Amino acid sequence: MDYLYIKALHIIFITTWFAGLFYIIRLFIYYKEAEEKPAIEKNILTEQYQLMIKRLWYIITWPSAVLATIFAVWLLILQPAWLQMGWMQIKLGFVAALFAYHWSCQVLYNQIVKGNLKFSSFALRIWNEVATIILFSCVFLVVLKTSFGWIFGVSGIIGVSVLLMLGIKLYKNIRNKNSWDKK
């Protein structure tokens, strides 16, 4: 029974961790776009986004990452045989990629704190899709429990990602054409 509670808590904190990662990049995009506004609007928006980013990052995203990791390690202690399985080894590779992604978000956060976010909003929109690919890969690995079954799921998400990138580019063109930012 303890195993099921620990698994449930792991899933909950993985969910909140990913929610934080998805939303933090969105806030980075809004922050970057606010930098292009007139001075008064820029100051108000960037200050508000900095506050929102800080709260999301340190109140939700970081604690969720730590707790998801604690419960994951606990699950592996209860089920050490998983470490010998190919699907788990591949999943742990994706988890390492997730930590690298999380760290890259910390770097972006630090740039915002210094007032010097170096990436464009378009680059951030593309970067946002990396977390989606990691999520899909991990879910397919855990559900299918095969070393190769995840490839089909990841191939599908890559296809969807390409469509999303084309959609982002189309959205950018429509937005520029129609001036959606104006009232």
Automatic annotation (TrEMBL):
Catalytic activity: protoporphyrinogen IX + 3 A = protoporphyrin IX + 3 AH2
Cited function: Catalyzes the oxidation of protoporphyrinogen IX to protoporphyrin IX.
Keyword Cell membrane: yes
Pfam families: UPF0093
Membrane topology annotation: Multi-pass membrane protein
Organism: Lutibacter holmesii
Family classification: Belongs to the HemJ family.
Enzyme nomenclature, EC number: 1.3.99.-
Cofactor binding note of this UniProt entry: Binds 1 heme b (iron(II)-protoporphyrin IX) group per subunit.
Cross-referenced HAMAP family: HemJ (MF_02239)
Protein name as it appears in the record: Protoporphyrinogen IX oxidase
Record's subunit section: Homodimer.
Cofactor(s) recorded in Swiss-Prot or TrEMBL: heme b
InterPro entries assigned to the protein according to its UniProt record, in alphabetical order: HemJ-like
Subcellular location field: Cell membrane
Pathway: Porphyrin-containing compound metabolism; protoporphyrin-IX biosynthesis; protoporphyrin-IX from protoporphyrinogen-IX: step 1/1
Keywords per UniProt: Cell membrane, Heme, Iron, Membrane, Metal-binding, Oxidoreductase, Transmembrane, Transmembrane helix
Annotated TM spans: 6-29, 56-78, 90-110, 122-144, 150-171
Record-listed heme binding positions: H10, K91
Keyword Acyltransferase: no
